[in-house]
Amino acid sequence: MQFLYIEDDEFDRLAVYRYLGKWDLQNCVIFKNTLSEAIDQLKENKYQVIFSDLQLTDGNALSLLTKFPKQKFIFISGIEDREVLEIIHANKNAQFIKKDFDLSYLLLIKNEILKAKGKEDISKISKPTNPNIKTDYDLSNLRRSFNNNEKLVMEVVKEFIKHIPIKLKALDNAIGQKNETGIKNITHQLKTSFSLMGLKKCYSILVAMEDQASQTKKNEAFDFPKQFKNLSTLTSNGIVQLENLLEAND
pTM of the full predicted structure? Predict the structure, then answer.
């Protein structure tokens, strides 16, 4: 029994893969990065359930509903758009999961897989830990999702530190070019990465930037370069703290 997961953000894919690995479910899920890759896959194979982020780099995943009407889809997004939800709820083969900041959506994904496999979820999620040292980051939700497996948590932290500067550079370029589509897509992808690290101030800036880039009627007072400067400063501080955490765990 196979499942398909479509997600263009590598941190989100890593989080799902690691989380499902705690129940030996990761090998029954095929991961694809883009809509076009998923379409090629669906032309050749049938899946028990297809999980997909709504807004992908090369298109909106809702288009899959008309292309593959007999497949079951579960769409995942951090934004609850009324028109989108109406389309999903009107389709008997479609569901919606809110991609929330505390990562509880990972539990819902796992439960849907277990349900499709005919198994009851008897697992228990440990309570989040609360470190005594005050930091900008908060890994309590990440630790809870990985059942306090510190080795896996540190792997995700390393990936964040490695790839975030590259993505921030791409966002800076999009802002410089006034590429609103690019700004919207990149901030949408980055939100998951920052939510995994619990960098809430950074996450709030990304939400505001994505929302502004998505609006037809713009707020003239919104300053993308200024917001990006704040984001860069906060991210740099967070990375320094996370590097200290990695050093302490060596």
Answer: 0.61
